[in-house]
Amino acid sequence: MGIGSSMMAGLGLGDPVIRLGVTGLSRAGKTVFITSLVANLMDRGRMHALRAAADGSIKAAWLQPQPDDTIPRFDFERHLAALTGPDPHWPEGTCHVSQLRLSLRLDARGLLGGLTGPRTVHLDIVDYPGEWLLDLRLMERDFSEWSAEVLDRMEGRPGADAYHAAMNGLDPDRFDEPTAQRLAQTYTAHLHAAREAGWSDCTPGRFLIPGEMEGSPALTFAPLPARFAEGRLHKEFRRRFDAYKARVVKPFFRDHFARIDRQVVLVDVLGAIHQGPRAVEDMRRAMADILTAFRPGRAGWLAQLLGTRRVERILFAATKADHLHHVQHNRLTAILSAMLREARDRADFSGARTEAMSIAALRATTEDTIRQDGTELPAVRGRLLDGRQAAFYPGELPADPAALLHPARDGAPDWLDGDYAIMNFAPAPMTARPGDGPPHIRLDRAADFLIGDRL
Ligand SMILES: Nc1nc2c(ncn2[C@@H]2O[C@H](COP(=O)(O)OP(=O)(O)OP(=O)(O)O)[C@@H](O)[C@H]2O)c(=O)[nH]1
Ligand SMILES: [Mg+2]
Asked: Out of 146, 190, 301, 428, which residue is the most buried by the measure of CB atoms under 10 Å away?
């Protein structure tokens, strides 16, 4: 092999590439997942259930410059330093798409293996917000339909009153930029407040995470009620709404989504359960909407854009399972599966393989038992954000997911059997042996499902 071809191998030209999409609604755990996955693929001591790691097929794993020059690089080193440094803390929220390339050197395999020598496979990991998939719904609506739907959804959510107040006394036939900005800002403030309060459906997705588009006209519109119909304000907002679809939503699906081979959808089920029945129902609906992106009968323009391309495997993962003692993990997975069932039943995702599991990308707790009124409760123990240690029992998840999903669907304001608590643990200081990555729960299984067959 001459220098030229080995350099080509180094750059990855011609080597197989797996493009893994990592998505989930805001705060679902995407950044922590990617950071821990990459760290655990580089140091594979805790990856027994990833067969290629356990049997020694993976010889080496290293980071490479990514091939896409215009997508920001996932800041792996900084996030890992946050999670595993001397004062471990969670990484900050993400405000754009990012990507990272991890290359794996693998043992030769199969009959021809002996002839061809070791192989290299590149894993391109793409971090993008689930809210951007929710924007699919905008594509199927015109501005009036979308407005009606959103104003209806807004009722009773934080910031709704302020938005209605901002529309008060406006002349439908008058358009000026300061008014447009004020409406867009008040509407965006509502989205942030709703998100903070545990609502899942907070679209348009780019309003929450504007990146470099902040302040541009395509992001400066807001829903308008029927009384504005066909006035100047309505006309201009409708134009911007259409621009948002054409210049923001479509390019995302074309440039990022269309190229994904494997997908993990992270879901903070425990967080929603903690917020209550309405948050669970809202999450269920949002997930159903998100999943339409992966369905064969999806919108015509998307089917056209994707052609015969498809996501081959989709993993649905309930994150932060380290908040529960392992005796409850099966129940958490059952709730996630039930939450997605309707959407999963409606289509088989064009033949993609799907699986659901409960994981913790970064395990922040150890298991413990708490004595309460003479009974022993399966609990977890960890370090709180203020540094204190605490043992914690979140409550018992029901064996039958319907016990949660039915009241949620029926619009119950509270859970009948009391609350499901949640505690914010900080990442635990690391005591890893050399060769071990950060502690996790079932991240190795997740990796095996997502990419194991290609290694
Ligand atoms: N205990 C525990 N908490 C987790 C885990 N993963 C994420 N978290 C918590 O969830 C928060 C959000 O995690 P991120 O990975 O930043 O979530 P994200 O989806 O990237 O969030 P955005 O970038 O804001 O959309 C963290 O700050 C932690 O508090 C986990 O494995 N265990
Ligand atoms: Mg993030």
From this structure: 190
What's the confidence (pLDDT) of residue 201?
A: 84
Q: Rounded mean pLDDT of 304-326?
A: 90
Q: Is the dihedral of CA 152, 153, 155, 161 positive or negative?
A: negative
Count the helix, strand and coil residues of the chain and give each as a percent rounded to the nearest 5. Answer: 45, 15, 40
Nearest CA to ligand 1 atom 17: 29
- Tell me the pairing of strands 365-372 and 262-267: unpaired
* DSSP 8-class letter at 74: P
Long-range contacts of 181-188 (CB under 8 A, 24+ apart): 181/220, 183/221, 183/222, 184/219, 184/220, 184/221, 184/222, 186/159, 186/162, 186/222, 187/163, 187/222, 187/223
- Ligand 1, from 320, 322, 367, 386: best to mutate by most atoms within 8 Å of Cβ? 320
Q: Is the dihedral of CA 436, 437, 440, 442 positive or negative?
A: negative
The number of CA neighbours under 13 Å toward the Cβ of 299 is 18
User: What's residue 346's pLDDT?
Assistant: 60
From ligand 1's centre to the CA of 283, what distance in Å? 17
Portions of the chain given CATH number 3.40.50.300: 12-128+257-364+432-454
Question: Of the ranges 122-126, 289-293, 370-374, which is most confident?
Answer: 122-126
Q: 74 CB under 6 A from ligand 1?
A: no
Q: What distance in Å separates the CA atoms of residue 71 and residue 54, rounded to the nearest whole number?
A: 33
Comparing 34-48, 144-158, 235-249, 413-427, the range with the smallest average pLDDT is 413-427
Extract the tokens encoding 136: 């699919």
Query: Would the CA dihedral through 334, 336, 339, 344 be positive or negative?
Result: negative
**Which atom in ligand 1 lies closest to the alpha carbon of residue 35?**
15
Distance CA(6)–CA(60), nearest Å, equals 17
Q: Residues 142-163: pLDDT tens digits?
A: 999 999 999 999 998 999 999 9
What tokens appear for 381 in the block? 């123990």
Q: Say if ligand 1 is within 6 A of residue 392 CB.
A: no
Could you give the CA distance from residue 229 to residue 239 in angstroms, rounded to a whole number? Answer: 13
Spacing of C-alpha 59 from chain mean position: 30
Mean pLDDT of 12-26: 88
CATH number given to 12-128+257-364+432-454: 3.40.50.300
**Nearest alpha-carbon partner for 158 in 123, 192, 135:** 192
Q: Which helix (H) or strand (E) covers residue 11, if one does? A: helix 3-11
